[in-house]
Amino acid sequence: MKYFPIDRNLFIKNRKKFMAQMKPKSIAVFNSNDIYPIGADSTMPFEQARDIFYLSGADQEETILVLFPDALDKKNREILFVRETNEHIAVWEGAKLTKEQATAVSGIETVYWLTDFDKVFFDLMTEADTIYFNTNEHYRQAVETQTREDRFIQKCKQDFPAHQWAKSNTILQQIRGVKEPEEIALMQTACDITEKGFRRILGFVKPGVWEYEMEAEFLHEFVRNRSKGFAYTPIIASGANANVLHYVENNQQVKDGDMILMDLAAEYANYSSDLTRTIPANGRFTDRQKAVYSAVLRVKDQATKMLVPGTLWAEYHKEVGKIMTSELLGLGLLDKADVQNEDPKWPAYKKYFMHGTSHHIGLDTHDYGALKTPMKANMVFTVEPGIYIPKEGMGIRLEDDVVIQEKGEPFNLMRNIPIEIEEIEELMNT
Ligand SMILES: [Mn+2]
């Protein structure tokens, strides 16, 4: 791990919050992700499953967390199973967590080797009535592979058919959506690393550079600041490429007069940041670019002000749609008739702004979090309006990550990342 150790009190608090919502005599199990194969003996880099990380801080494959608040023996209330380490593994793969280190990271006193899991788990299950399975119910999930968690659930249903099943996801959606101060600090670090990358790129970009050269500059800056790299697949889209919302080829040459849309950001300690900036390739906005850019920025600023406790996500999106509609009228992209005749299910503004304005962010870039109940303090959201005009070869999106406060406007974790036209131009021309 490149990141600095995390205060284990975070994970202790997270487990407390989870266990407080479990039914009597119930047990919950959380598995690591697999290390996914590429071919021959090569694999993808390991990415820890976010839920077991959230509840334990264990950032290692083949780890299992068991929570059993009503266990008769107190030492069985929280158990971490880790892969047994030995000298051979230490030589070939590097050190894995020892039992003492696993306790230091997680705050869990009872640590067993994974090889003991079946025996210990069977014994615990004889005391339990209900088992919580950790299924993925994210609103955007579209997973076709079977995870380690899925295999565990299948086996468990076979081995313990008389137990009741419950799901962890409802609890996790709720608690992961509201961030602890330690988590906000980690996300601030991710945003600060992203800022360094962005400032670096402002001095680098000029007509003739290739999108992938910009990608390399960002990655360089991210990794040298203890990030694993991009929090999600980076989008570096010059000119008309910006109108492809998930453009990730990043293989075109930047032309004089183009705008470049960059939707990319660093991860830190498995926490995401999520930034979008759109800059002029030659360091100067044209009048038209300025007009569209300023419209997007005004929508972003007004939308941000609405992110306060009590706001409903769906209502918020409707309001943002109204603000965007008036900006598009101002830019001459819509006329009154377009708006009067619009289909309420797909309002006129969607022609130029077809995606959502905000999503939860945290351990996942599109994080867990309640969306149908009112917003609460310490939820973290992106704010990311955009205007896409294919016939003008231009797409502009601006995005910051903000924390909802008890009172007043949200706190912008990206407040130090240049966004005003004058500042961008100045930094690109010095
Ligand atoms: Mn986003």
Automatic annotation (TrEMBL):
Top-level EC class: hydrolase
Keyword Protein biosynthesis: no
Biological-process GO terms, alphabetical: proteolysis
Family under the similarity heading: Belongs to the peptidase M24B family.
E.C. code: 3.4.11.9
Cofactor: Mn(2+)
Catalytic activity of the protein: Release of any N-terminal amino acid, including proline, that is linked to proline, even from a dipeptide or tripeptide
Residue ranges constituting the Aminopeptidase P N-terminal domain according to the UniProt record: 6-142
Alphabetical list of Gene3D superfamilies matching this protein: Creatinase/methionine aminopeptidase superfamily, Creatinase/prolidase N-terminal domain
InterPro entries, per the entry: Aminopep_P_N (IPR007865), Creatin/AminoP/Spt16_N (IPR029149), Creatinase/aminopeptidase-like (IPR036005), Pept_M24 (IPR000994), X-Pro_dipept-like (IPR052433)
Signal peptide feature range: none
Name the record gives this protein: Xaa-Pro aminopeptidase
UniProt cross-references to Pfam families, sorted A to Z: AMP_N, Peptidase_M24
GO MF term set: manganese ion binding; metalloaminopeptidase activity
UniProt entry keywords in alphabetical sequence: Hydrolase, Manganese, Metal-binding
